[in-house]
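pinned: reference chain
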Amino acid sequence: MSSPGIVAVYHARVGEKRVKMAELVIRILILGLGVVAAVLIVSNTELQLIFSITKKAKFTDMKALVFLVVVNGIVAAYSLVHIVRCVAGMARGSILFSKPIAWLIFWGDQVVAYLSVAAVAAAAQSSVLGKYGQTELQWMKTCDLFQKFCNQIGEGIAAAMLVSLFTVILSSISAYSLFRLYGGRKGKNSTRW
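pinned: its structure tokens
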């Protein structure tokens, strides 16, 4: 027969393993979707004949899309580094880490989440202008001319939105992982580092 303390420790370790596994799965999803979003946007071009002039639409025409591709590359690379860290930690069997490392992971995840949200917002706003134009400024709807280009850009932005959502979820997980290190000190001075 086991004591209640052993059961609580066992459940805590199982819970920590589940959090780490969720973190690993989300980081893998971020890596995959980040690469997919970047490839969809970078590989997209379309040629159209407009008033006897051939115009080629490419992602570099919209600086917000360039920003989105760069950010997705950074997010994917950052996620790859942490996938290796997670797998190595799981292989060694170590779940807990030091507070300074937890703080670095937390701040890194926060920066990546904010960058991702900002890049998606900028690209989505620019795409809305391309789709609907701005009649007050006499900006025409370019997606009427470049439908294939706009559709593929939309797919890339949708993948980037998922990346952004997952980075926000991941930053919550890293916050949980960090702040749980400060819990469980009832009666002790918990303001020390």
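why pinned: Confidence is low (pLDDT under 50) at residues 4-12. The two ends are 38 Å apart (CA to CA).
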